[in-house]
Design brief:
Shape of chain B: globular
Largest interface: A-B, 86 and 94 residues
Radius of gyration of chain A: 17 Å
Number of helices of chain A: 5
Shape of chain A: globular
Helix content of chain B: over 70%
Number of helices of chain B: 5
Number of domains of chain A: 2
Number of strands of chain B: 0
Distance between the termini of chain A: 45 Å
Largest sheet of chain B: none
Distance between the termini of chain B: 38 Å
Order of helices and strands of chain B: HHHHH
Order of helices and strands of chain A: HHHHH
Helix content of chain A: over 70%
Oligomer: heterodimer
Structural class of chain B: mainly alpha
Chain lengths: 119, 116
């Protein structure tokens, strides 16, 4: 097996494990992997990542569903809000300074992480 | 209403390509008091309609590199199955802590990465 194939399979197993274990985070692994390990353009990496995470999330959803870990009374309002928010987020993408937002996001995430760890 | 707002803000962050799950899952656990596994399950479902729409748009623009995607999806499905069953086995508070460490890593990466 050639080197490129091994790299792709390694990215795949890591992305799948994280996305299944945490129900999220697949994109966080696969986008930088495609950019830095495989040398794909940033915008193509984002597009390719969605084609990867969607089937992985479907299989995880089925497993979570059979184990009763999907509360539908919560899913419905969150999904309605989520779809509207995603649309607005995608529209705002080129209109706001995304790098500053990323730093704010980083601070919020570090604070949240510490709360989750020491809860 | 609070649930729709949590969905809205995490969706907005997700739509910008930053990572909606990193906001949605802790918000559901901390603000709404549900179990870690349930919050993760909600995140998986919420992602599906948004991802499907994005996928159609990206496919039309021919931005998807299927030669790379195919082997990653193939082995990724196996990883997803193992990861999901692990998540169902671990108790909720431990899984929350592991998730916290993963978040910490993402947060630090966001703070220190340099982009154009």
């Amino acid at each position: 097996m050639d080197k490129k194939k091994i790299k792709l399979l390694a990215i795949g197993i890591g992305t799948g494990l994280i996305n299944g274990l945490f129900g999220s985070g697949g994109g966080t692994i696969v986008v930088p992997s495609l950019v830095f390990i495989m040398g794909i353009d940033d915008y193509k990496a984002h597009a390719t990542a969605i084609s990867i995470i969607l089937p992985l999330s479907i299989i995880s959803t089925i497993i979570y569903l059979t184990k009763g870990s999907i509360p539908f009374n919560i899913v419905v309002p969150v999904t309605i809000g989520g779809v509207l928010g995603s649309y607005l987020g995608a529209k705002l993408l080129n209109k706001i300074p995304i790098n500053i937002l990323r730093k704010i996001f980083g601070v919020v995430i570090v604070y949240t992480a510490i709360r989750m760890i020491f809860k | 209403m609070i649930l729709a707002l949590i969905g809205f803000f995490s969706g907005m962050i997700g739509g910008m390509g930053i990572g909606g799950g990193a906001i949605l899952i802790p918000a559901l656990v901390i603000l709404h008091g549900i179990e870690q596994q349930e919050a993760q399950g909600v995140n998986l479902v919420v992602f599906l309609p948004v991802a499907l729409t994005a996928l159609v748009i990206h496919h039309k623009k021919e931005n998807i590199e299927f030669a790379y995607a195919k082997p990653i999806i193939f082995i990724g499905l196996i990883g997803s199955i193992i990861g999901s069953f692990l998540a169902m086995k671990i108790d909720s508070s431990s899984l929350g802590k592991y998730f916290g460490f993963f978040l910490l890593f993402i947060g630090i990466y966001e703070l220190f990465q340099k982009k154009e």
